[in-house]
Specification:
The chain has 4 domains: 161 residues, PAS domain (Beta-Lactamase, 2-Layer Sandwich); 48 residues; 152 residues, Reverse transcriptase/Diguanylate cyclase domain (Alpha-Beta Plaits, 2-Layer Sandwich), CATH 3.30.70; 259 residues, EAL domain (TIM Barrel), CATH 3.20.20.450. Strands 13-14-16-17-18-19-20-21 form an 8-stranded mixed β-barrel, surrounded by 4 helices. The chain has a 5-stranded antiparallel β-sheet with strand order 2-1-5-4-3. With 710 residues, the protein is of the alpha/beta class. Helices cover 53% and strands 18% of the residues. It has 22 helices and 22 strands. It binds ligand C2E and magnesium ion (MG) (2 copies). The site of one magnesium ion (MG) has 4 residues, from loops.
Length: 710
């Protein structure tokens, strides 16, 4: 109701004025009533005195009753002049009523007149009494003890008092009303004056709210509450302004951070290329658009060949440098609108903008391969990397993003297995290949349970033709795929992280079969087994090997671990630590397939190996390639200078054997002597080749009896 302070204050003042006036008027009326009664009492006392004196001679006269009645009536008649007289009664000394006179008031109000007789006022007591709105004056006629009677006058106190009060009120009320109006007007004016700064303050805050301008200030002179409030509001505005400025700068920082975050979220920090998130979002959009318009989208997936070894041997700085350089070169080749992105690691995706023909796609791939084939210079050193590309098209993937990327990946893997540095267009038969890989991956665990793996052993001969040991090579007869070569399933197991399970099985099996193998000769025969890069990272491999050795009571020196150089270099540090443990235990370490994986030889001085196995690729070409002969002799010289034992593998001809013997090769392994054969068959074969080595001049080629296909 009183929504503003002003109306509330006005209402309060009005209430106060009215209450005060009412209280004052109440007191005035009470006082007035008292005064009135006093005046009437005085008058009545005087009147009763006069009348009683006038009545005295009448009562003392000896007139007849009638005459006395007339005389008394004459005395009382003047009372007609008093409007307030109700009645007058004259009594004898025996209180017998002598005369009853009805005054003007009694004549007017018979009802009240009759009431008087019911009021009990003792006659004998002189004086003034008030009862039921009447004033009774009782007076003896004559002096006591010679009084002759009594006079009682009854006056109306109520009627005249009410009339008098009414007239008093009507006279004063208008004055009170005027005074109240004046007071209220003055109060309102004063209030207006007082509250004006408050109203100004209110409109000021409204102005701030609507304009959102926090630099405005309220001016309120003086030191009253409103001025103080204004000052406080100004202080608050200062604070808001300050906070706003801070917020603005925070917002700017946040915006900058958001921009950086967006960049980080969508762009690769190293190469500056769009990242996986960005390319996937873009591809999703492009595929939806292409599907609507019945267009095709091509996708090129590539990764660097042998990137991991660069990273591991030359450090991450070199790896990063290679990635940046490749990204730059490939990006420079592409046209505006083509999208080159880095998926992560050494994997990249390219989405050509337009819908390129197959010829255009192969052209792009060739240009990419050529540009990346150029040496990359780093601190004066020339680095070389290759890359393998897979191409896939949206139509073949039915515009499904996951399938499209997976198809490109499958095609890229085909390029890798085709010898790297190539590109492959996706076709459905690659999927068959992929499915086979998947089946192999998923069958590994069951293969161990179902004992589908066996070990074959391939002999290792020394330069006198004497059997020195065997290399254990795993074989898998799959229930539906038949015999699978380790060359196929080991890389698949490596990719899917399942190779440690196989390696443990091989280690356990070799240790189990060791005792039987040793019965072949009366010399110690060393068994070599192959480890993968994954095994070298497994922290508990050493414990496992140690437990197997202890369990089967094997001499550690009879075990040799073969590790390819790429596996070794994949994680140089952990490989070194792992193989050092085996070395300390007494086992030998051989670097397998040497010469194929890596071009830098500097790491050879930093690793702890006993034997270097020349890859069969060089051995194979000894017959006809002078280059391979040169490489082989260089490797053997190098190994000798490093005090390493040399083992040549893949020897199939006496020419190869002769050449290797000439160079001083220590161990010989190949079909020329024996193919890998199962344990049981080892006892059927004669592993004595001393004659062949003695007859070095006999160059007639002796082909090994190929009894086993593996
Ligand atoms: P590797 O360790 O270099 O083994 C030598 C491979 O060359 C064997 O192939 C062997 O059968 C083959 N070989 C030996 N002499 C000749 C020859 O005179 N001519 C020809 N053409 N080939 C010869 P295999 O058994 O198919 O093994 C292939 C590769 O699979 C192995 O190469 C090794 O890297 C891997 N592997 C085999 N068994 C295991 C295993 O138990 N664990 C792991 N991690 N890898 C294994
Ligand atoms: Mg090997
Ligand atoms: Mg090898």
């Amino acid at each position: 109701m009183f929504c503003s302070v002003k109306s509330s204050v006005v209402a309060i003042i009005l209430l106060l004025v009215v209450s005060l006036t009412s209280v004052v008027m109440g007191f005035v009326l009470i006082e007035y009533e008292q005064l009135y009664a006093d005046v009437v009492e005085d008058n009545l006392t005087g009147l009763s005195q006069n009348v009683s004196q006038e009545l005295l001679p009448i009562l003392t006269s000896t007139k007849s009753d009638k005459a006395r009645q007339v005389s008394i009536k004459n005395v009382l008649m003047p009372l007609d002049a008093y409007d307030s007289v109700f009645q007058a009664q004259v009594f004898g000394i025996d209180t017998k009523l002598i005369k009853h006179y009805v005054g003007p008031a009694g004549k007017k109000d018979i009802l009240r007149l009759n009431q008087i007789s019911q009021i009990d006022i003792p006659l004998m007591e002189e004086g003034i009494r008030i009862a039921d709105g009447f004033m009774f004056a009782t007076k003896k006629i004559g002096e006591s003890p010679f009084a002759l009677g009594y006079l009682q006058l009854v006056f109306d106190l109520h009627g005249p008092l009410s009339a008098s009060k009414f007239s008093l009120l009507s006279r004063t009320l208008s004055t009170i009303l005027i005074a109240t109006v004046v007071v209220m007007t003055i109060a309102i004016l004063l209030l207006n004056r007082l509250l004006q700064p408050l109203s100004r303050l209110s409109s000021f805050t409204k102005q701030i709210d609507s304009a959102k301008n926090y630099s405005l200030r309220f001016s309120a002179p003086g030191k009253n509450e409103v001025a103080l409030l204004g000052k406080n509001i100004n202080d608050m505005l200062d604070t808001i302004n300050l906070e706003l400025e801070k917020n603005k700068s925070h917002t700017k920082t946040l915006e900058a951070q958001q921009e950086t975050m967006t960049k980080l979220a969508n762009y690769d920090a190293l190469t500056g290329l769009p990242n996986r998130q960005f390319i996937m979002d873009t591809l999703r959009f492009k595929l939806a658009e292409a599907k609507r318009n019945q267009h095709d989208v091509a996708l090129l997936f590539f990764d660097l060949d042998g990137f991991k070894s660069i990273n591991d041997s030359l450090g991450h700085e070199a790896g990063d440098h290679v990635l940046v350089e490749v990204a730059k070169r490939v990006n420079n080749l592409m046209r505006d609108g083509d999208l080159v992105s880095r998926l992560g690691g050494d994997e990249f995706l390219i989405v050509p903008n337009a819908e390129p023909s197959e010829a255009e796609l192969t052209g792009i791939c060739q240009r990419i391969l050529e540009t990346v084939d150029q040496p990359i210079l780093m601190k004066g050193v020339e680095l070389r990397v290759g890359l393998s590309i897979g191409i896939a098209k949206a139509i073949d993937a039915n515009y499904d993003l996951t399938d499209l990327v997976s198809n490109a990946d499958v095609a890229m893997y085909r390029s890798k297995s085709n010898g790297r540095g190539t590109y492959t267009m996706f076709s459905s038969d690659l999927i068959e290949d992929y499915k086979r890989k998947l089946l192999i991956t998923n069958s590994i665990a069951k293969a161990i349970e179902e004992q589908e793996f066996t070990l074959y052993y391939q002999a290792k001969i020394n330069c006198d033709g004497i059997l020195m040991g065997f290399e254990a090579l795993i074989r898998w007869v799959h229930p539906s795929l038949g015999m699978i070569s380790p060359g196929e399933f080991i890389p698949i197991a490596e990719q899917s992280g399942k190779v440690p399970v196989i390696s443990r099985w091989v280690i356990a099996q070799v240790c189990k079969e060791m005792a039987v193998i040793q019965t072949l000769t009366d010399r110690d025969l060393r068994i070599s087994l192959n480890l993968s890069a994954h095994d070298l990272h497994a922290a508990d491999l050493y414990d496992f090997v140690k437990a197997q050795i202890d369990h089967h009571g094997i001499k550690p020196s009879l075990l040799e671990f073969e590790v390819t150089e790429s596996a070794y270099l994949e994680s140089f540090q952990s490989s070194n630590e792992c193989l050092k443990q085996f070395g300390d235990l007494g086992c030998s370490i051989a670097l397998d397939d040497f010469g194929t994986g890596y071009s830098s030889l500097s790491y050879l001085t930093q690793i702890k190996i006993d034997t270097l196995k020349i890859d069969q690729q060089f051995v194979k070409e000894i017959d006809y390639s002078s280059r391979s002969r040169l490489v082989t002799s260089t490797i053997i010289d190098l190994a000798k200078s490093l005090n390493l034992t040399i083992c040549a593998e893949g020897i199939e001809s006496r020419i190869q054997q002769s050449y290797l013997t000439e160079l001083g090769c220590d161990y010989y392994q190949g079909y020329l002597y024996s193919k890998p054969i199962p344990l049981a068959d080892l006892f059927e074969v004669d592993f004595n080749f001393t004659r062949e080595f003695a007859e070095e001049s006999d160059v007639s080629l002796r082909k090994a009896e190929n009894v086993y296909s593996f």
